[in-house]
Amino acid sequence: MSATPTAEPRLAHFPVPFFASVLGLSGLTTALHAAGWTRASLAILALTIAIFVALAAIYLLKALRHPKAVAAEWQHPVKLAFFPAFSISLLLIATALAPSVPDVARGIWLIGALTQAGLTLAVLSNWIGNRAFQANHISPAWFIPAVGNVVAPIAGVGLGFPETSWVFFAAGLIFWIVLLVLVMNRLIFHDPLPGRMVPTLAILIAPPAVGFLAWLQLNGGVLDGFARLLYAATLVFLGLALTQVGKLRRLPFGLSHWALSFPVAALTLATLRFAALTGSSAHFWAGQAALIASCLIVALLGVATLRAMTRGEICRPE
């Protein structure tokens, strides 16, 4: 009799940022495939899909039983940006499936693209609506909707949706530039990020890295000046993120640490692709090092998440 009242509150506090773990896992899947680790890639892909289905089922149950809790997350200035992580997960899973089962990947991509478009417009409408956001509400997590749009062309071009992919790329690029100004203004001229939000600084790496991969798909794989600019910007933001490693090491684990996983996977993919196009051995080995780092980050985050779950440290009121 006592199990029900205990379970329901935990379900009510099941956080939408949990989907960030799927982004990291699916990014690692694609990075392993790009590096030639096919079997490992398929194993992580199976795990990614299983975790995504589980998280989606739990969050759907939360929406049915605790709609007010979902509405509260939608109204939260930071958690709001994590809702498109659901659709980005679908796009990344489609990207990982495209080489082996393109027909299945095409269907998943369409669902992900439609959902991503709807969530992007809904989030933007929320941002420019009647709510009054403060400067301290802004964080690098606000990049997530923009990054999601840039993800779409990576698989979309090859799956037969080039024009649609251009629209997603344009949306992602425009809002990346706008949000970059807002985020940098917040980081420089306002209070420092709260400790639990410091890991989200790694998200700065993702937009140019994913943009680099998307641009190569859209322009036929030509490493032109704009592609080089995007990859160079990735390295610039990597350097900025590395300056915060000292702070990260002192922080207790939280789900926000999963923000480290996808950007490093995107960096890995971009570096391996750059190495393949230029024949640079330095970039090849840098890509291998980034792949090892990506594997270690996901493994450590997975262990930390399981430990936190067994201790009841997740799905609690903030």
Automatic annotation (TrEMBL):
It is a multi-pass membrane protein. GO terms for cellular component: plasma membrane. Pfam families: SLAC1 (PF03595). CDD domains: TDT_SLAC1_like. The keyword Zinc does not apply. The chain crosses the membrane at residues 12-34, 40-61, 81-101, 107-129, 141-160, 166-185, 197-216, 228-246, 258-276, 282-306. Coiled coil: none annotated. Its main location: membrane. GO terms for molecular function: monoatomic cation efflux transmembrane transporter activity. Keywords: Membrane, Transmembrane, Transmembrane helix. The keyword Transport does not apply. InterPro entries: SLAC1/Mae1/Ssu1/TehA, Tellurite_res_ion_channel, Voltage-dep_anion_channel_sf. It is found in: Membrane. This is C4-dicarboxylate ABC transporter. It comes from Meridianimarinicoccus roseus.
